[in-house]
Design goal:
single chain, about 270 residues, Butyryl-CoA Dehydrogenase, subunit A, domain 3, 5-stranded mixed sheet, two-stranded antiparallel sheet, 9 helices, 7 strands, about 55% helix
Amino acid sequence: MKFTLSEEQRDFAQALRDALKRSASWETLLALGVHEVESAPDLVVAFLELGRAAVPGPIVESFAVLREPRSTLAWPPHVPYVVDNADQVYAIVDDTKHRASIVEERTSVDPSRRLFTYDIGETVGPIDAEAFERGVLACSAQLVGLGRALIDRSRDYALQRSQFGKPIGSFQAVKHQLADAHVALELAEPLVFGAAVTMSRQDVSAARIAAGKAAYQAMRTALQVHGAIGYTAEFELSRWLLKVRALVTAWGTESWHRERLMATLCG
């Protein structure tokens, strides 16, 4: 299925991309109204760009799930720790929102995605029925955006880096790896938009599976193309690599989403 963005959506995506190139900050997101996005397709448009820019912080939890810019949450078992700290911290248990207090910071694969243990406090009330699906959907879009950024950067590096007197991008093995990763992302993105239209459990899980696999393939390809320098924490590429590593198991692992998808189809 082919999805065509409206002129307004294209303008929103371009405005986000341009602004985030200058500053991938919380203030930038608020100024562009990311916290006011209502529809699921618009949410996907936004999170594709947030992933492309590797925006730090609890963006899924704040902007997609809670829709409160200065809030964050934990939602065990799929989001077992509070992601970052904020003015308001919540824990979701049995689809009920509770206030929570930060206890201790834990080690995170992604330094820009801080994790904390927490204590549960008073009950606030039920969380809306689509909140979890919005979290999964936003994470899926973010993964596709991260994957696209990794492939774009790898392509540029392959055209600049020379070996045996030629750019490594001219070697067929490198071309094939980049092309395969690009195709995987091209196949995943329509599934994410399709899930945004239906917001059904099976479509959201299918999109999450495809997005996670495509982003992971892009990450592996980026490491192959960049070679040893891609493994260094000081190299800028690590911003995208580590974020993919952290998010491929966030908001439900691939195996959990496969089980949910099968249960939905066969139930």
